[in-house]
Queue: 2 jobs
Job 1
Amino acid sequence: MESLIELKDVYYRYQEQEDEDWVLENIDLEITAGEFIAIVGHNGSGKSTLAKLLNGILLPTQGEVRVGGKVTTEQEDLWQLRQQLGIVFQNPDNQLVANIVEEDVAFGPENLGLPSAEIRKRVDEALRLVGMTDFARAAPHKLSGGQKQRVAIAGVIAMRPDCLVFDEPTAMLDPQGRQEVVETVEHLNRQEGLTVIYITHFMEEIINADRILVFADGKVELAATPKELFTKVDKLRDLALDIPQITELAYQLSESGLDIDTNIFTSTELVEELCLLK
Amino acid sequence: MLNDIMIGQYLDRNSIVHALDPRVKILLVILFVISLFISTTLIAYSLLGIFIIVSTLLAKIEFRYILRSLKPLIFIISFTLIIHLFLTKGGEVLWQWRFLSIEEEGLNLGLFMAVRLIFLITFTSLLTLTTSPLELTDGLERLLEPFRKVGVPAHELAMMMTIALRFIPTLLSEAEKILKAQKARGADFESGNLIQKAKSLIPLLVPLFVSAFRRADDLALAMEARCYRGGKGRTRMNELHLAAKDYVIGILVTVFLLTIVILS
């Protein structure tokens, strides 16, 4: 299959810091339409910089970034590229523009210059997809963090992108809000077929990803499926990353001599494994 | 505490005045203010007064809200009245005490100016009471659009107003959080004279400003990521449409106001 997003030999550093280390170094990446890619890494590993490179907010110092065949350095294609690849940012408060939910969701399509009726249709559809239809006329500051983040997602999908990038969308949310956002993301990927690039440092959120890329010091340190990755508990510890608690528990149980599988992500799976023990 | 602050004073009612196009309302208010300043006769003022009362009734707005809008300006209104009472001379002497005197002209002019101010405030507040901030912004943007060519940044002004309205509650709740945090560390915001009080606000304002700038940065990034590139080529989900009632009411009120101006 043809790849939707392509990064070739990408290097990046901030202009004013010529003598400093690369923020991103030698990134080669291909992402196919419909994939759910998770990117993890501790602070300063360059994962957020990657998000900004994808839609041309930042331009690579070397190498090239292509989205749907378009290069991010091509100024003329930039707006079409940003319509194709939407980004949901970390702080839910700082990305909502209007003081009524549906007006905010309409902001993106309005920028695209669509006719009113089409915008109306897209806004209703986007709000339905994130389950916020009942709050269409509400004021953003009256919503919970998770709800605000869902509105932000609706605002991006109303532009009908092919790919959604989430830059730590749950970092500022409570557990309830995190759950809401993760469910919405998984739904959009599975049911609506949107390509998802999900940047986070919560391992629990990405157990359903197709591929996980582990970033460290601006490089891709590991690339694996969740099942493969979470068995490398020691390696992840070296990179200062958490693994899901249940997986960790299973790992420790197996270390201390219990005969159980360590490929476990949910408590139900663990209970089943434990019941199989003699 | 700060969360209850209402933005604007919009009252949601189902009335013909509310349903009117914001552009028509803004234009009529401007026209009203002009007529108010041109008219000088008692009849004209009685008619304008009746017009305000009828509009308020049609808008289903209780009179206490209208009166409340006068409250902050009571001082200016009484000041105008008193200055005119004692300083404008002419006509019969109505009252005399040592060097202070009230003469007929002064009384007339004083009352006249006071009523003018009261009408001005009540009618303009009727606009903000019956039009949501969002509609007002939209209406202003559309009205200013023809002036784009002479350099009036219509879209930019409207966008600034929208963002301000969006972030006022956010920044207020943030201010409250900082206030509590600083109080918890022993900051004293209440005691001292005016200068000391103003000084004690520094630990509140500095973090608030820093965070406002950070938010602005984030928001600009998010707006660009959503393809924002100014007003050019931008469409709206809710376009304003002038309906038959907008034309009818607009023309009727204009004719009414013009008649008053011509009569006086």
Job 2
Amino acid sequence: MNFSETYFAWTFQWKWAAIKNGMKNAVAYRGEFLIDLFSSAFVPAAIQFILWQAIFHNTGITTFAGMSYSELLGYTWTSILFTQIRGGDYDFSLIEMIRTGSLNNYLIRPVGIVEFTYFQGFGEKAPTLIFCMALGLIATIFSSITLPHLFMAMSLAFVGSIIHYFFGACLSVVAFYWENAFAVLMVKNMAVSLLSGELIPLSIIPLRYSWVWHSTPFYLYVFGPTQLALGKWNQAMWAQQMMIALAWLVFFWGLSRILWAHCIRRYQGIGG
Amino acid sequence: MIQTPAIQVIDVKRSFRSVKKESGFKGTVKLLINPEYVVHEALKGVSFSIQPGEFVGLIGANGAGKTTLLKILSGLIPPTSGQASVLGYLPFARELPFRKQISIVMGQKAQLWWDLPAIEAFDLLRALYQIPKDVYKKRVDELTQLLDVDKLLNTQIRRLSLGERMKMEVIGAIIHLPKVIFLDEPTIGLDVLAAQKLREFLKLHNQNEGATIILTSHNMDDISELCKRILLIKEGELIFDGNPDKLTNSNECQLRVKLGSEPSIEDISGMIGIAAQNTIKDEEDPTTYLMTVTRARVAEYLQKLLAHYTVNDIGIQEASLERVIQRIYQQ
């Protein structure tokens, strides 16, 4: 048996093919792709910008929760990079497939549906990832962000985006029972927006409530990477947070497998 | 030598529970507060077995349970009770070797990726099924030429006509040469030529590759041209399993008479003493009537017809499969 016939080679080949497929899908409609690329990141940033403007200019304060206006703006612009990376909501594809019965197309294929959807979704998001990485590299020239910190931040945001998907995959099994779980995933996304640091820096949340965002993995999506990029977290902190992120990843990956194996018995394959 | 069946189904039952929605605002509120559930028995204990290489037609009226049975056999849903095995595997266990050896085409659902050209969808399938590149290329060339779609490989699936898309779907389904293929209404919506081309292709594929094929279709041309055996399902029960000729070679035949006048179907049926539903007018000639009658009483019916009408032409033919099936559905 040569290498191309091995199980390892096969899993690599189909995952790579799924990524390529996703990338082709993403750019099939160029206008849509470009609007999504630019608009989805700038809306949360604009909200933050207006919020900080209102707070600092109307009240006349010079610091807010220990952060100056320029620090908050720096956070806002830097966090855009990571907001886009976590933004792949491929879990919505899963509930749509369960609801419409199009899951049939994938269940008969010799691959895991949750994994396949991830790789295809990752492929769709890959151009955005590359764009963010390029923006980050440019930022290292014109700002205080250093290259090592950028890579540490990107790596954490990347693992965070995988956690985000598998967490969504766990929640999507609700669709096997309720037929639709759109609202469940929307609530999850709202919680993520708030607790990931996408809308506000989590450091401004009073210390007595910090356990709330510490007890979820969401801060690893945007807040953690932004702290790393801005140099507020060092290498040791990166290593520690990466270990935590990997533990969350293994947990949600394992849980999604268990839940899907169990809940798929409820699937009715509607239609056809 | 006794062959191991490719497909074995033993007393398979499947029921679905769904919410009963009453009409109007009151029904909507009730659905929210106190939903009422109904259980529908889609399959009520079906048993049969299929040998490797057989081309079997699965027919029945809408809602008879055909697609449910295909979904169970392809591992999409589990049976409520009973046992099904395909190529020796329990379908719902969905083991990797099982999934690599089966395929399903659902005529009413696109399985290829809508926004991608067919060739890119096939490329992905090549990776999923680990088909060597040279074998894959040769196979795509052969299959697309056979189905006359070789010039459309680089066109997005959504831009293809229904017939072209269905041909691509079939190619996508057999590109890995599955041992068992489930075809759920593959010719639905196709024009006569496209349907014929697809039938010829499926026949050839079954002969050359020896794949076991189960075909569901409401088009009796599909069934009579391709299937040497049919499974007839009615309201979740298997009511016939055998050669289609057994259905058409019964004690019934079709009496064809061309009259000098145009009596109504009710009048002519009532006059010779058969049910009106057994008589139809020829679509091309309104003075020609086709009557499904008991073979032993043909002479008696002819005597009555000759006594009451001017008969210009008479013919007796075997009852068509479509007509027989239609009558079974109506019973």
